[in-house]
Amino acid sequence: MERNDIVLKLKNILAETLEHTNFEINDALTAKDVDGWDSLSHMIIITQIEKEFGIKFKLRDLNKLDNVGALIDVIQTKL
User: Fold this and answer.
1) pLDDT class for 74, splitting at 50, 70, 90?
2) pLDDT of the residue at 54
């Protein structure tokens, strides 16, 4: 799957979970940069990503997630 396709799906997941689109997806984006992206919504986002892409994250994968760019990279390796 192309990186752009992943970004589009990811943006939809974030918008649906956080109930707004007041953010721009880029590799440096972190939860701190987005209103409403707290620890609870983070777990919901991760669960939605697993469902949408048909993947499962391992704990070591989640520990690598410093920003959205790292998240996209992990998703690509699992597809």
Assistant:
1) very high
2) 97
Domains of the chain listed by start with CATH number: 3-78 (1.10.1200.10)
Q: How many Å separate Cα 75 from the centre of its chain?
A: 9
pLDDT score of 34 more than 90:
yes
| One-letter amino acid of 74 | V
End-to-end CA distance of the chain: 7
Q: Do 31 and 42 meet the contact criterion of CB atoms below 8 Å apart?
A: yes
Contact at 8 Å (CB) between 25 and 31?
Answer: no
